[in-house]
Specification:
This protein is α+β, with helices and mostly antiparallel strands. The chain is about 25% helix and about 20% strand.
Length: about 450
């Protein structure tokens, strides 16, 4: 054990704060928490877990932490936040606990852009090894498509630099296979010469909701790959801290990112303005450093239950059925998010990785806030989400993206993420690098 590695037992005063991340419903309750400050600490923590026979979970910001057993070792990487930009090579070397806000700010200082997610508080490494789909996705693809190297702490507690040349199989697996193969200490990512964007959102009131979604769907047929867009149906509570135009309303928020020919942005979105008068309009030219303001995702920790699906298409009948099942006037409606895919997302990367189901047309996400967290509230949210998924069953491909499996990110859910061939290959690689399944508190791939 190194001197700078902090270990926290369940009886410690700081235990609850250390184990709880952005998702506050059912945080892991480990036997031990390790808080490393260096890569050597990280390796030592893995050796401690292996030596005590404890399964290992890893948490940076805690956005994607799954329900897990009340046991094991939790490694929180919150103190490993370094980001180093190489402007000549156009790369970022990102430590395990750095969030996207830190990476974006560092890259923007050189006129460069990383393939960030919607929220600046999401951990960049976990997001990337799980796939990574953000506002520049249709132009450049998944973040995992643009990884140059991965520094991995193996199940033996040893650091290993993995590249396409050093270990092609493991490099394929770790980009899209999540945390199944070790703890990622650092990751080297491509950056792109993007310094300005056109983007923001138009928010429409309830009477325009269904018409707005249909218009958005028709508009998507006309947009080039430089345009990434999401439609989100949001039931805002009637709370005084919300802006008056949104308070207590069930609205449609159409988010748009134009990452090339920024001056054409207003021309490209003109059909969306024909939906009607928006309650809120934030569309404008902005610096890349402000990319998180386009979707304006929450930054404060909260409790929620999530679910996701990949759809082959989104036709008017499915829109109607989805809104009837989980839209305005329904019981406990969730936030409904529909991300337009295609473009570079649909194309295979230059160096193959473990992301399947690229031919899907849309990603459906469901988020049910839990204002009063507990088993009953979570069960009710799960029932609402099942109702919504049933409404889109005719378009559900049956596949999933790893980052969007949802709250039940277990071995059963993981099976939907990969094709049979990919899953068999992943299990064989897992058997080679983690035969005891030390890294199993995740969307788990068991050894073959």
């Amino acid at each position: 054990m190194t001197e700078s590695l902090t270990l926290i037992e369940p009886a410690a005063e700081e235990y609850d704060a250390a184990r709880t991340g952005f998702q506050t419903y059912r945080p892991l309750r480990p036997d031990l928490i390790a808080v490393p400050e260096t890569v050597d600490d990280l390796a030592a923590a893995v050796r401690i877990g292996a030596g005590r026979g404890l399964p290992i979970a890893v948490q940076a910001t805690g956005h994607g932490t799954p329900d897990g057993p009340e046991t094991g070792l939790l490694i929180t990487t919150s103190r490993l936040t370094g980001v180093r930009i190489d402007p000549e090579r156009r790369t970022a070397l990102v430590d395990a606990g750095a969030d996207w806000g830190t990476v974006v700010a560092a890259a923007a200082g050189h006129g460069l852009a990383g393939l960030a997610g919607n929220a600046r508080t999401v951990g960049a490494v976990g997001y990337t090894v799980g796939g990574g789909l953000g506002p520049l996705g249709r132009r450049y693809g998944f973040a995992a498509d643009h990884v140059r190297s991965v520094e991995l702490i193996t199940a033996a507690g040893e650091p290993l630099t993995v590249t396409a040349d050093s270990d092609p199989d493991l490099f394929w697996a770790v980009r899209g296979g999540g945390g199944n193969f070790g703890v990622v200490a650092r990751i080297e990512l491509d950056l792109f010469p993007v310094d300005r964007l056109y983007g923001g959102m138009l928010i429409f009131d309830t009477p325009l909701l269904e018409r707005g979604m249909r218009t958005w769907r028709e508009w998507l047929e006309t947009v080039p790959d430089q345009v990434t867009s999401t439609a989100v149906v949001v039931p805002f509570p009637d709370l005084p801290q919300l802006p008056p135009p949104l308070r207590g309303r069930h609205v449609l928020s159409v988010r748009v990112t134009v990452s090339e020919d920024v001056e054409r942005g207003e021309e490209l979105v003109r059909p969306l303005r024909e939906i009607g008068e928006p309650l809120v309009d934030t569309l404008r030219v902005l610096p890349y450093a402000e990319i998180a303001t386009i979707n304006n995702d929450p930054t404060e920790p909260a409790a929620s239950r999530t679910a996701g699906a990949l759809l082959d298409d989104l036709d008017p009948a499915v829109i109607t059925e989805l809104l009837a099942a989980a839209g305005p006037g329904t019981e406990r409606p969730p936030v409904i998010e529909l991300r337009h895919l295609g473009g570079a997302v649909a194309r295979p990367p230059a160096v193959p990785n473990a992301i399947d189901h690229r031919d899907a047309g849309f990603l459906l996400g469901l988020v049910s806030p839990l204002p009063v967290p507990g088993p009953e509230a979570a069960a009710a949210a799960g029932e609402v989400q099942r109702r919504a998924l049933s409404a889109v069953a005719a378009r559900d491909t049956g596949g999933r993206f790893l980052n969007f499996v949802g709250s039940h990110a277990d071995a059963v859910a993981a099976r939907s993420v990969w094709t049979d061939a990919s899953y068999a290959r992943l299990r064989a690689i897992k058997n080679r690098v983690d035969p005891d399944n030390l890294f199993r508190i995740n969307a788990n791939i068991p050894p073959a």
